[in-house]
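Per reviewer request, we include the raw input and output of the structure prediction for the construct analysed in the revised manuscript.
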Amino acid sequence: MPVGFWVFPWDIEDEGIDRFAARLDELGVTSASPSVLYHSGRALLPRAREHKVRLLGGPGANYPFESLETPLAGMESASAPGTGKRFWQGLAEALSDRGIRLNAWAMPMHGSELGRRLSVAVVRNCFGNPYSYALCPSHPQARRFAESLVGELARSRIFHAIQLESVGYLGYRHFHHHEAEYVGHGPLEELFLSLCFCDACMAGARREGISVVELRESISRDLERRWRDDVWSVGVEDVREALAANDDLQAFISYRQATVASLVSSLAELCHSESTELHCFSAIFPPTLEHSTWIEGTDFAAWSRVLDRLIVFGYTAGGPGAAKVDEGWTRSELEYAGRYFDPSRVNVVLNLAPQYLATLDDARRRFRTISEMGFNDLSITNYGMTSETRLDWVPELGRVLDAPASST
Protein backbone atom coordinates (compact mmCIF):
# COMPACT_ATOMS: atom_id res chain seq x y z
CA MET A 1 0.00 0.00 0.00
CA PRO A 2 1.39 3.45 -0.88
CA VAL A 3 3.11 5.35 1.95
CA GLY A 4 4.68 8.74 1.25
CA PHE A 5 6.82 11.17 3.23
CA TRP A 6 6.72 14.96 3.33
CA VAL A 7 10.25 16.31 3.69
CA PHE A 8 12.29 19.51 3.77
CA PRO A 9 15.10 19.74 1.17
CA TRP A 10 17.67 20.64 3.84
CA ASP A 11 17.05 17.25 5.47
CA ILE A 12 17.88 15.59 2.16
CA GLU A 13 20.99 17.77 1.81
CA ASP A 14 22.07 16.90 5.34
CA GLU A 15 21.65 13.17 4.76
CA GLY A 16 22.83 13.10 1.15
CA ILE A 17 20.65 12.24 -1.82
CA ASP A 18 21.77 8.63 -2.19
CA ARG A 19 21.45 7.85 1.51
CA PHE A 20 18.04 9.54 1.66
CA ALA A 21 16.74 7.55 -1.31
CA ALA A 22 18.13 4.32 0.14
CA ARG A 23 16.54 5.03 3.52
CA LEU A 24 13.11 5.60 1.96
CA ASP A 25 13.53 2.35 0.06
CA GLU A 26 14.39 0.52 3.30
CA LEU A 27 11.27 1.93 4.94
CA GLY A 28 9.05 0.84 2.04
CA VAL A 29 8.14 4.42 1.14
CA THR A 30 6.71 4.90 -2.36
CA SER A 31 6.73 8.71 -2.73
CA ALA A 32 8.62 11.74 -1.44
CA SER A 33 7.26 15.29 -1.33
CA PRO A 34 9.99 17.88 -0.69
CA SER A 35 8.95 21.48 -0.10
CA VAL A 36 9.75 23.77 -3.01
CA LEU A 37 8.13 26.86 -1.46
CA TYR A 38 7.58 27.06 2.29
CA HIS A 39 6.62 29.66 4.88
CA SER A 40 8.77 30.98 7.73
CA GLY A 41 8.88 29.09 10.99
CA ARG A 42 11.02 27.01 13.32
CA ALA A 43 11.69 23.29 12.97
CA LEU A 44 13.11 20.85 15.52
CA LEU A 45 15.11 18.25 13.56
CA PRO A 46 16.16 15.48 15.98
CA ARG A 47 18.22 13.48 13.47
CA ALA A 48 20.08 16.38 11.82
CA ARG A 49 23.86 16.28 12.02
CA GLU A 50 24.27 19.96 12.84
CA HIS A 51 21.12 22.12 12.68
CA LYS A 52 18.92 20.47 15.31
CA VAL A 53 16.80 23.62 15.48
CA ARG A 54 16.40 25.44 12.20
CA LEU A 55 14.81 28.83 11.77
CA LEU A 56 13.04 29.04 8.44
CA GLY A 57 13.21 32.58 7.15
CA GLY A 58 13.29 34.44 3.89
CA PRO A 59 11.10 33.50 0.95
CA GLY A 60 11.55 29.78 1.52
CA ALA A 61 11.94 29.08 -2.21
CA ASN A 62 13.88 25.81 -2.24
CA TYR A 63 13.59 25.26 -5.99
CA PRO A 64 15.58 27.27 -8.59
CA PHE A 65 12.60 29.10 -10.08
CA GLU A 66 13.43 31.09 -13.21
CA SER A 67 10.12 32.35 -14.61
CA LEU A 68 8.09 33.48 -11.61
CA GLU A 69 6.53 36.84 -12.43
CA THR A 70 6.45 38.11 -8.84
CA PRO A 71 7.48 38.33 -6.10
CA LEU A 72 10.22 35.71 -5.69
CA ALA A 73 11.88 35.99 -9.09
CA GLY A 74 15.62 35.54 -8.78
CA MET A 75 15.51 34.86 -5.03
CA GLU A 76 17.23 31.97 -3.30
CA SER A 77 16.34 30.32 -0.03
CA ALA A 78 18.48 30.92 3.01
CA SER A 79 17.29 27.58 4.37
CA ALA A 80 18.59 25.30 1.61
CA PRO A 81 21.11 27.25 -0.50
CA GLY A 82 22.42 24.15 -2.26
CA THR A 83 19.16 23.01 -3.79
CA GLY A 84 19.80 24.08 -7.38
CA LYS A 85 18.92 22.31 -10.59
CA ARG A 86 21.59 19.66 -10.12
CA PHE A 87 20.17 18.79 -6.70
CA TRP A 88 16.62 18.32 -8.01
CA GLN A 89 17.68 16.35 -11.07
CA GLY A 90 19.89 14.11 -8.95
CA LEU A 91 17.09 13.57 -6.45
CA ALA A 92 14.62 12.68 -9.20
CA GLU A 93 17.04 10.13 -10.67
CA ALA A 94 17.95 8.56 -7.31
CA LEU A 95 14.31 8.12 -6.34
CA SER A 96 13.26 6.90 -9.78
CA ASP A 97 15.96 4.22 -9.68
CA ARG A 98 14.22 2.83 -6.58
CA GLY A 99 10.69 3.18 -7.92
CA ILE A 100 9.88 6.13 -5.64
CA ARG A 101 7.79 9.01 -7.03
CA LEU A 102 8.96 12.60 -6.57
CA ASN A 103 6.31 15.23 -5.88
CA ALA A 104 6.64 19.00 -5.36
CA TRP A 105 5.12 20.43 -2.17
CA ALA A 106 4.33 24.15 -2.40
CA MET A 107 2.43 26.90 -0.59
CA PRO A 108 1.48 29.49 -3.21
CA MET A 109 -0.87 31.50 -0.97
CA HIS A 110 1.02 31.39 2.34
CA GLY A 111 4.18 33.01 3.69
CA SER A 112 4.93 36.20 5.61
CA GLU A 113 7.78 37.16 3.31
CA LEU A 114 5.59 36.35 0.32
CA GLY A 115 2.90 38.66 1.67
CA ARG A 116 5.40 41.41 2.42
CA ARG A 117 6.67 41.37 -1.14
CA LEU A 118 3.16 41.24 -2.61
CA SER A 119 1.40 43.33 0.02
CA VAL A 120 -1.22 44.62 -2.42
CA ALA A 121 -2.63 41.09 -2.74
CA VAL A 122 -2.92 39.95 0.89
CA VAL A 123 -6.10 39.00 2.75
CA ARG A 124 -7.75 41.88 4.65
CA ASN A 125 -10.30 41.31 7.40
CA CYS A 126 -13.52 43.19 8.06
CA PHE A 127 -11.59 45.98 9.80
CA GLY A 128 -9.24 46.41 6.83
CA ASN A 129 -6.29 44.87 8.70
CA PRO A 130 -3.89 42.91 6.44
CA TYR A 131 -2.91 39.28 7.09
CA SER A 132 0.62 39.44 5.75
CA TYR A 133 0.99 35.64 5.85
CA ALA A 134 -1.87 35.07 3.37
CA LEU A 135 -2.32 36.01 -0.28
CA CYS A 136 -5.93 36.40 -1.41
CA PRO A 137 -6.95 33.94 -4.16
CA SER A 138 -9.37 36.54 -5.50
CA HIS A 139 -6.59 39.02 -6.27
CA PRO A 140 -5.31 38.89 -9.89
CA GLN A 141 -1.65 39.24 -8.87
CA ALA A 142 -1.90 36.40 -6.37
CA ARG A 143 -3.56 34.19 -8.98
CA ARG A 144 -0.88 35.00 -11.56
CA PHE A 145 1.80 34.14 -9.03
CA ALA A 146 0.20 30.75 -8.27
CA GLU A 147 -0.19 29.98 -11.98
CA SER A 148 3.42 30.98 -12.66
CA LEU A 149 4.65 28.79 -9.80
CA VAL A 150 2.66 25.70 -10.76
CA GLY A 151 3.36 26.15 -14.47
CA GLU A 152 7.13 26.20 -14.01
CA LEU A 153 7.11 23.16 -11.74
CA ALA A 154 4.93 21.21 -14.18
CA ARG A 155 7.09 22.15 -17.16
CA SER A 156 10.17 20.70 -15.44
CA ARG A 157 8.67 17.21 -16.02
CA ILE A 158 10.59 15.81 -13.01
CA PHE A 159 7.61 15.74 -10.63
CA HIS A 160 4.85 13.15 -10.62
CA ALA A 161 2.50 15.64 -8.93
CA ILE A 162 2.35 19.21 -7.70
CA GLN A 163 0.92 19.20 -4.17
CA LEU A 164 -0.47 22.51 -2.92
CA GLU A 165 -0.93 23.04 0.80
CA SER A 166 -2.38 26.53 0.50
CA VAL A 167 -4.61 27.37 -2.44
CA GLY A 168 -7.53 29.02 -0.66
CA TYR A 169 -8.20 31.72 1.90
CA LEU A 170 -5.98 31.39 4.95
CA GLY A 171 -8.03 32.57 7.87
CA TYR A 172 -7.42 34.03 11.28
CA ARG A 173 -6.41 30.76 12.93
CA HIS A 174 -3.51 30.12 10.58
CA PHE A 175 -0.87 31.68 12.70
CA HIS A 176 1.78 34.33 12.35
CA HIS A 177 4.69 34.36 14.83
CA HIS A 178 4.05 35.00 18.55
CA GLU A 179 0.27 35.26 18.37
CA ALA A 180 -1.51 36.69 21.38
CA GLU A 181 -5.20 37.04 22.15
CA TYR A 182 -6.77 37.65 25.54
CA VAL A 183 -10.49 37.74 24.74
CA GLY A 184 -12.99 34.92 24.41
CA HIS A 185 -12.77 33.36 20.97
CA GLY A 186 -14.89 30.61 19.41
CA PRO A 187 -15.76 29.23 15.96
CA LEU A 188 -18.02 32.11 14.92
CA GLU A 189 -15.41 34.74 15.83
CA GLU A 190 -12.83 32.70 13.92
CA LEU A 191 -15.10 32.64 10.86
CA PHE A 192 -15.72 36.38 10.98
CA LEU A 193 -11.99 37.16 11.35
CA SER A 194 -11.18 34.75 8.51
CA LEU A 195 -13.31 36.46 5.86
CA CYS A 196 -11.40 38.61 3.37
CA PHE A 197 -12.73 42.04 2.40
CA CYS A 198 -9.85 43.22 0.22
CA ASP A 199 -10.65 45.34 -2.84
CA ALA A 200 -10.65 42.28 -5.12
CA CYS A 201 -13.05 40.36 -2.89
CA MET A 202 -15.31 43.38 -2.46
CA ALA A 203 -15.48 43.94 -6.22
CA GLY A 204 -16.10 40.26 -6.93
CA ALA A 205 -18.85 40.06 -4.32
CA ARG A 206 -20.57 43.16 -5.71
CA ARG A 207 -20.60 41.55 -9.16
CA GLU A 208 -22.51 38.66 -7.57
CA GLY A 209 -25.11 41.05 -6.16
CA ILE A 210 -23.91 40.74 -2.56
CA SER A 211 -24.34 43.75 -0.26
CA VAL A 212 -20.74 43.32 0.79
CA VAL A 213 -20.17 46.75 2.38
CA GLU A 214 -23.14 46.21 4.69
CA LEU A 215 -21.94 42.66 5.40
CA ARG A 216 -18.46 43.86 6.35
CA GLU A 217 -19.85 46.57 8.62
CA SER A 218 -22.31 44.22 10.35
CA ILE A 219 -19.56 41.68 11.04
CA SER A 220 -17.27 44.40 12.38
CA ARG A 221 -19.99 45.67 14.71
CA ASP A 222 -20.82 42.16 15.91
CA LEU A 223 -17.17 41.41 16.75
CA GLU A 224 -16.76 44.68 18.62
CA ARG A 225 -19.96 44.01 20.57
CA ARG A 226 -18.78 40.52 21.54
CA TRP A 227 -15.41 41.82 22.73
CA ARG A 228 -17.04 44.67 24.67
CA ASP A 229 -19.64 42.43 26.35
CA ASP A 230 -17.20 39.55 26.98
CA VAL A 231 -19.30 36.97 25.11
CA TRP A 232 -18.20 34.45 22.49
CA SER A 233 -19.45 31.45 20.53
CA VAL A 234 -18.96 27.93 21.84
CA GLY A 235 -19.92 25.55 19.05
CA VAL A 236 -21.05 24.84 15.52
CA GLU A 237 -24.65 25.85 16.26
CA ASP A 238 -23.56 29.47 16.61
CA VAL A 239 -22.06 29.33 13.11
CA ARG A 240 -25.15 27.68 11.65
CA GLU A 241 -27.44 30.29 13.20
CA ALA A 242 -25.31 33.15 11.85
CA LEU A 243 -25.39 31.68 8.35
CA ALA A 244 -29.13 31.00 8.45
CA ALA A 245 -29.83 34.58 9.55
CA ASN A 246 -27.80 36.32 6.85
CA ASP A 247 -28.32 35.68 3.13
CA ASP A 248 -25.39 37.91 2.18
CA LEU A 249 -23.06 35.93 4.44
CA GLN A 250 -24.16 32.69 2.79
CA ALA A 251 -23.69 34.20 -0.67
CA PHE A 252 -20.26 35.53 0.29
CA ILE A 253 -19.17 32.06 1.43
CA SER A 254 -20.34 30.65 -1.93
CA TYR A 255 -18.48 33.40 -3.80
CA ARG A 256 -15.27 32.48 -1.96
CA GLN A 257 -15.72 28.81 -2.84
CA ALA A 258 -16.28 29.63 -6.52
CA THR A 259 -13.19 31.86 -6.52
CA VAL A 260 -10.93 29.12 -5.17
CA ALA A 261 -12.52 26.49 -7.43
CA SER A 262 -11.76 28.56 -10.53
CA LEU A 263 -8.12 28.93 -9.43
CA VAL A 264 -7.81 25.20 -8.77
CA SER A 265 -9.28 24.48 -12.21
CA SER A 266 -6.73 26.79 -13.86
CA LEU A 267 -3.84 25.19 -11.98
CA ALA A 268 -5.06 21.69 -12.85
CA GLU A 269 -5.13 22.62 -16.53
CA LEU A 270 -1.52 23.82 -16.32
CA CYS A 271 -0.44 20.56 -14.68
CA HIS A 272 -2.36 18.27 -16.99
CA SER A 273 -0.94 19.99 -20.08
CA GLU A 274 2.48 18.76 -18.89
CA SER A 275 1.31 15.25 -17.90
CA THR A 276 1.63 16.15 -14.22
CA GLU A 277 -0.95 15.55 -11.51
CA LEU A 278 -2.38 18.23 -9.21
CA HIS A 279 -3.11 17.39 -5.57
CA CYS A 280 -4.56 19.95 -3.12
CA PHE A 281 -5.01 19.96 0.65
CA SER A 282 -8.62 20.26 1.73
CA ALA A 283 -7.46 22.84 4.29
CA ILE A 284 -4.10 24.06 5.49
CA PHE A 285 -4.93 23.06 9.08
CA PRO A 286 -7.17 20.27 10.33
CA PRO A 287 -10.50 22.03 10.93
CA THR A 288 -11.71 22.73 14.46
CA LEU A 289 -15.31 22.09 13.42
CA GLU A 290 -16.54 19.06 11.53
CA HIS A 291 -16.64 19.53 7.77
CA SER A 292 -15.60 23.20 7.98
CA THR A 293 -12.94 23.33 5.27
CA TRP A 294 -15.33 25.69 3.41
CA ILE A 295 -14.00 28.46 5.68
CA GLU A 296 -10.90 28.44 3.45
CA GLY A 297 -13.03 28.38 0.30
CA THR A 298 -12.87 24.64 -0.32
CA ASP A 299 -15.62 23.13 -2.49
CA PHE A 300 -15.23 19.35 -2.72
CA ALA A 301 -17.87 19.00 -5.43
CA ALA A 302 -16.08 21.44 -7.74
CA TRP A 303 -12.61 20.18 -6.86
CA SER A 304 -13.57 16.58 -7.59
CA ARG A 305 -14.06 17.47 -11.26
CA VAL A 306 -10.49 18.71 -11.79
CA LEU A 307 -8.16 17.40 -9.06
CA ASP A 308 -6.23 14.16 -9.37
CA ARG A 309 -6.11 13.78 -5.60
CA LEU A 310 -7.52 15.47 -2.53
CA ILE A 311 -5.20 15.59 0.49
CA VAL A 312 -6.84 15.42 3.93
CA PHE A 313 -5.55 15.26 7.48
CA GLY A 314 -5.85 11.97 9.34
CA TYR A 315 -5.02 13.57 12.67
CA THR A 316 -6.72 16.25 14.72
CA ALA A 317 -5.53 19.75 15.41
CA GLY A 318 -4.32 20.26 18.94
CA GLY A 319 -1.35 20.07 21.24
CA PRO A 320 -0.59 17.73 24.16
CA GLY A 321 -3.42 15.32 24.76
CA ALA A 322 -4.63 15.26 21.16
CA ALA A 323 -3.67 11.57 20.93
CA LYS A 324 -6.61 10.83 23.23
CA VAL A 325 -9.17 12.44 20.94
CA ASP A 326 -11.80 9.99 19.69
CA GLU A 327 -10.93 8.52 16.30
CA GLY A 328 -14.49 9.32 15.32
CA TRP A 329 -13.22 12.74 14.19
CA THR A 330 -10.91 11.17 11.60
CA ARG A 331 -13.62 8.78 10.46
CA SER A 332 -16.13 11.61 10.07
CA GLU A 333 -13.77 13.79 8.02
CA LEU A 334 -12.83 10.93 5.70
CA GLU A 335 -16.45 9.91 5.22
CA TYR A 336 -17.20 13.51 4.26
CA ALA A 337 -14.37 13.58 1.70
CA GLY A 338 -15.55 10.21 0.40
CA ARG A 339 -18.92 11.70 -0.58
CA TYR A 340 -17.16 13.60 -3.37
CA PHE A 341 -13.93 11.69 -4.06
CA ASP A 342 -13.44 7.99 -4.56
CA PRO A 343 -11.11 6.82 -1.75
CA SER A 344 -8.49 5.93 -4.37
CA ARG A 345 -8.23 9.68 -5.12
CA VAL A 346 -7.66 10.74 -1.51
CA ASN A 347 -4.27 11.00 0.19
CA VAL A 348 -4.47 10.90 3.99
CA VAL A 349 -1.72 12.69 5.93
CA LEU A 350 -0.67 11.25 9.28
CA ASN A 351 1.68 12.56 11.95
CA LEU A 352 3.71 10.15 14.09
CA ALA A 353 4.47 12.76 16.78
CA PRO A 354 3.65 11.67 20.36
CA GLN A 355 0.93 14.29 20.78
CA TYR A 356 -1.00 12.64 17.93
CA LEU A 357 -0.05 8.96 18.20
CA ALA A 358 1.37 8.19 21.64
CA THR A 359 2.49 4.62 20.94
CA LEU A 360 3.10 2.21 18.08
CA ASP A 361 -0.18 0.51 18.99
CA ASP A 362 -1.97 3.85 18.58
CA ALA A 363 -0.36 4.24 15.16
CA ARG A 364 -1.36 0.71 14.15
CA ARG A 365 -4.97 1.38 15.10
CA ARG A 366 -5.07 4.67 13.21
CA PHE A 367 -3.57 3.13 10.06
CA ARG A 368 -5.97 0.19 10.30
CA THR A 369 -9.00 2.46 10.77
CA ILE A 370 -8.14 4.44 7.66
CA SER A 371 -7.36 1.33 5.62
CA GLU A 372 -10.63 -0.37 6.57
CA MET A 373 -12.50 2.68 5.31
CA GLY A 374 -10.99 2.06 1.87
CA PHE A 375 -8.42 4.88 1.89
CA ASN A 376 -5.20 3.28 0.70
CA ASP A 377 -2.91 6.23 -0.07
CA LEU A 378 -1.24 7.48 3.11
CA SER A 379 1.60 9.91 3.73
CA ILE A 380 3.52 10.96 6.83
CA THR A 381 4.69 14.37 7.96
CA ASN A 382 7.55 15.09 8.36
CA TYR A 383 10.70 13.07 7.55
CA GLY A 384 13.30 15.28 9.25
CA MET A 385 11.13 16.06 12.28
CA THR A 386 10.39 12.40 13.09
CA SER A 387 12.59 10.63 15.64
CA GLU A 388 14.62 7.59 14.63
CA THR A 389 12.49 5.35 16.83
CA ARG A 390 9.26 6.47 15.17
CA LEU A 391 10.81 6.41 11.72
CA ASP A 392 11.48 2.72 12.34
CA TRP A 393 7.72 2.22 12.82
CA VAL A 394 7.05 2.81 9.14
CA PRO A 395 7.79 -0.72 7.80
CA GLU A 396 5.61 -2.19 10.55
CA LEU A 397 2.80 0.23 9.74
CA GLY A 398 3.12 -0.70 6.08
CA ARG A 399 2.66 -4.35 7.03
CA VAL A 400 -0.43 -3.41 9.04
CA LEU A 401 -1.89 -1.80 5.93
CA ASP A 402 -1.12 -4.80 3.75
CA ALA A 403 -2.38 -7.41 6.22
CA PRO A 404 -5.96 -8.76 6.15
CA ALA A 405 -8.17 -6.95 8.64
CA SER A 406 -8.76 -10.11 10.67
CA SER A 407 -5.05 -10.53 11.41
CA THR A 408 -4.62 -7.30 13.42
